[in-house]
Design brief:
The protein is built from 10 helices and 8 strands. The chain is an alpha+beta fold. The strands form 3 sheets. A 4-stranded antiparallel β-sheet has the order 1-6-3-4. A two-stranded antiparallel sheet has the order 2-5. A hairpin with a 6-residue loop joins β3 and β4. α3 packs across α4, α3 packs across α5 and α6 crosses α8. The longest helix is centred in the C-terminal third of the chain and has 16 residues. It is flat and about 50 Å long. It starts with 7 loop residues before the first strand and ends in a 5-residue tail after the last helix.
Length: 215
């Protein structure tokens, strides 16, 4: 299959205080432009997150982010070298360079969509018409993460997004395929660094989970 054009979500943030921000795993990599007050801006490309983490804040610091859809492969060294040699008057001028340095294999896109949809990896592979081993090699080779990583990530993100309207924690766990509430709690702690009850008490965490991402 020919590579398909990946989608990119553009976001912007200016810190109004020195409070830290929580980053949650979303299955995406971002190209980020970052400038501290009085300093020259820098560019960097994030890795896939395996758990949530806090980013220290500085009042007045600015970010532009370009969130690439899950499964995108990017030539980060070439992209960053190209950006280092350019004078940009708006961070969005980096978009043509970003698109030139990334691609998304349609097979990978379909594989990730199937993994998010079906409970079992074997079912996802069967619906794609490939063996589990072929699915494993395809996903691992393109994303450096296993199919299990993607399945667990999709499930915990969906469960967390559904949590505020769920009748109970036990119902939420059952609705999203967890063995029981304790199983869901362990997954929340692994991925989000908080129990389900604690996650509901953190609006900034729920807001981050509502942003674009895998699942």
């Amino acid at each position: 299959m020919q590579p398909k054009a990946p989608t990119v979500d553009v976001w912007q943030h200016t810190a109004t205080s020195s409070h830290s921000s929580t980053v949650v795993p979303d299955g995406c990599r971002d190209l980020i432009w970052h400038q501290l007050p009085g300093q020259r801006p820098t560019w960097f490309v994030t890795d896939l997150a395996d758990s949530s983490y806090d980013v220290p804040g500085t009042a007045g610091e600015c970010f532009w982010g370009f969130r690439m859809q899950p499964g995108v492969q990017i030539d980060a060294p070439r992209l960053l070298a190209a950006l280092a040699g350019r004078t940009l008057y708006d961070a969005r001028e980096a978009l043509p360079l970003l698109h030139d340095c990334m691609h998304l294999d349609a097979r990978v896109d379909e594989a990730l969509a199937s993994l998010a949809q079906f409970d079992r990896t074997a079912t996802a592979a069967r619906m794609l018409g490939v063996s589990e081993r072929t699915l494993q090699r395809l996903v691992q080779g393109a994303t450096d993460r296993t199919p299990i990583y993607w399945k667990r990530l999709a499930r915990v993100r969906r469960a967390a997004q559904a949590l505020p309207l769920a009748p109970s924690l036990a119902d939420c766990a059952a609705d999203h395929g967890y063995v029981d509430q304790a199983h869901m709690t362990r997954e929340f702690q692994h991925w989000l660094g908080a129990t389900p009850a604690a996650a509901m008490a953190r609006p900034e965490l729920l807001s981050a989970l509502a942003a674009s991402g895998y699942g």
